Hints:
heterotrimer, A: mainly alpha, disordered N terminus, B: Cytochrome C Oxidase, Chain A
Amino acid sequence: xxxxxxxxxxxxxxxxxxxxxxxxxxxxxxxxxxxxxxxxxxxxxxxxxxxxxxxxxxxxxxxxxxxxxxxxxxxxxxxxxxxxxxxxxxxxxxxxxxxxxxxxxxxxxxxxxxxxxxxxxxxxxxxxxxxxxxxxxxxxxxxxxxxxxxxxxxxxxxxxxxxxxxxxxxxxxxxxxxxxxxxxxxxxxxxxxxxxxxxxxxxxxxx
Amino acid sequence: xxxxxxxxxxxxxxxxxxxxxxxxxxxxxxxxxxxxxxxxxxxxxxxxxxxxxxxxxxxxxxxxxxxxxxxxxxxxxxxxxxxxxxxxxxxxxxxxxxxxxxxxxxxxxxxxxxxxxxxxxxxxxxxxxxxxxxxxxxxxxxxxxxxxxxxxxxxxxxxxxxxxxxxxxxxxxxxxxxxxxxxxxxxxxxxxxxxxxxxxxxxxxxxxxxxxxxxxxxxxxxxxxxxxxxxxxxxxxxxxxxxxxxxxxxxxxxxxxxxxxxxxxxxxxxxxxxxxxxxxxxxxxxxxxxxxxxxxxxxxxxxxxxxxxxxxxxxxxxxxxxxxxxxxxxxxxxxxxxxxxxxxxxxxxxxxxxxxxxxxxxxxxxxxxxxxxxxxxxxxxxxxxxxxxxxxxxxxxxxxxxxxxxxxxxxxxxxxxxxxxxxxxxxxxxxxxxxxxxxxxxxxxxxxxxxxxxxxxxxxxxxxxxxxxxxxxxxxxxxxxxxxxxxxxxxxxxxxxxxxxxxxxxxxxxxxxxxxxxxxxxxxxxxxxxxxxxxxxxxxxxxxxxxxxxxxxxxxxxxxxxxxxxxxxxxxxxxxxxxxxxxxxxxxxxxxxxxxxxxxxxxxxxxxxxxxxxxxxxxxxxxxxxxxxxxxxxxxxxxxxxxxxxxxxxxxxxxxxx
Amino acid sequence: xxxxxxxxxxxxxxxxxxxxxxxxxxxxxxxxxxxxxxxxxxxxxxxxxxxxxxxxxxxxxxxxxxxxxxxxxxxxxxxxxxxxxxxxxxxxxxxxxxxxxxxxxxxxxxxx
Lengths: 207, 658, 112
């Protein structure tokens, strides 16, 4: 049971993913799962805020007036595909193929950037139509919920860039592999959160 | 910037002026700082401070720093309490102005819960958990240092508000719409929001850290059901931290967005709903009560078993009740705002769930009593506080059930009955528990045992002062005295009871002074603990020398029973040769010290300070500093080192353990 | 450290070498679920409350897809404590959301 920090749980030649080959890696992956649990609760609170406040438009723009079906569908598709490519990056990392792994990470980053571009364009469009976060409680909660997700995605992009740099410099090691695996968990988690934004915010809004 | 209508002792938005007490504090703060700088420079201790303490990632040192911070904050919060009780001692007192009183009850509550109770439990986590489970450090030592420094700078930010910008004055719960910008402009509430946010990040990291540590780093043979009860209570508290602190994060962040950017989450206009803040706040706030009290339960379990020389009665039921409390405490939050009037269905559900918390808690009380039953009880200081706790908690629990009855709560709500109740459980439970833990583990931390005689005086003065202070407040609550009033007229029949209560508060203040005197006396005339096992303990931390070497265990022990150290001592008493297969020493892998947790937290502090005063350039600068620190950590490869066998051998030989 | 307490990596079935079919299946299933939800809403296929419930169920299925097709959810050294933790997180999430909605819709849904 006990795992001390130095312990190498397996030799690299054996058939175990390299991110799990050190005790440090196994601990950090477990720790990150717990972090995701805290982030889940955080988003749960923001969703609750939105669900309570989304009818309080205070005479301002309503959901039906703002939400644009092709726009948010495109955002959803981009994130779903990026989740897939991110999964492939982890897969290639496990196979020990650095450039393939980096390639899929680059694709993921590009998809993430296009998602952020669409989201920022959507926000700017709303603000230009007078739908600012100061306008009503509905808009405050909308911008905060969707914006918090957007901040997470932006942070994920910066994180992936840092990992790409490290992967280029150092290749696949127990440390870089663990980072790819963990950033993958983070990215898939954000995809799940977006699916709920898609459902609760946008689909409910245009119902 | 002119701030209309802001507290009238604030002439400028920056330095607080106008009140002689504030000027006195200014002078005291400056003198203290000068004294600290002088002492450090004169004795050439700057390098020592940096190398040994600020950059440390050793859980034992971090625990000691938490403990010192908690005691300092207990002093600050205690002084606030004295000031309030002085103001309320007699009718029509003119000792404090209304605004000043508001600020003091706000900082008293905030500091006592978040900057006294939380660091106190984290001190105990850090000091005891790795030693009890046979580990060399926590799972993430670097993160542990970050947690401490985030707490430290969060506490600093809040305390700074006393002399810069003005203290928050919306109560420790900071309910909107009162705390929205139009009704409470100025930096005071911003200090509250940012300080709690920064230290909250640290608390969340601590919760993750200790859950991972306990689940993944136990010594071989220590199954979950062989763990010391304190570790189980830390599991319970960590689960609650992990799943409840995000709610506080959201509540604080949204109120900040309201205040700084003019959003409408909790305003009365544009569709905002202030009750949503109250809801989110208590989604965190109720579990928070159990976050601080569960570790106290764990400490009582250790102390009662040790000083009764019996194994803990009903171990499995103890574990079950900790986990039951952890889950049920998540389903009771509405009882803090029954009077919102959510309807009979809602109020009934939450009343019943609240009362049901009493069941596992009762199980625990009976288990402690049965552990003592027919035990050979030694009334040492930790045991004294543990025994003092039981009647306290019985009264606190009973009044808690009274408050849980929703129709009854409409009568007691926000009266002094409530005040007396939650002080009864928070002081009687948490503070008694943490003091018991402090006395219990003090030898393990510092290698000296605290003076028994002064400690007994402190205990009795505190215990008597406690009842003298809070029993009258139940009565005052029934007589209609509400919380947070700063003055009352004569002829209400409240005068005598208030005066008695104030006397009790002063008695507790004297007890605190006695504890400080006890510590100083024990440093001057130390009673050294040379055995490492001064209490004839049961768990693994007592198998180590006091204080433990920085790698804790030269060889990770193999555990074969609950109360592992007791089992080993029993085997020795039977004459068995427990050391028959002494494994050779191996190099020990340890994390490197790092100054970055400190610098990272300074950046958080700078960013937070910028947001408090809405100096966005400073906030952005702080944020960039945080990002840079994170990036540098990510790029770091050389994060740990090996202690060679020779050095371990030397250290162990010096400790007489070879 | 001795090696007697080595544990195997549970839930791991060797490094996948061939074409990543499971990932492709995961992507296809998540796209199908997304378009199903979108179509149901666009077509107003059922009454409002039921529709909301159905698309929420579809969203929950998407969590399952991500966890099992992409996130290697069942891999762990020793007991799968992270599965327990996330299950608990899910329970608490439901408690917060359902509890808060129940509490805050007192007096019926009202706009301000």
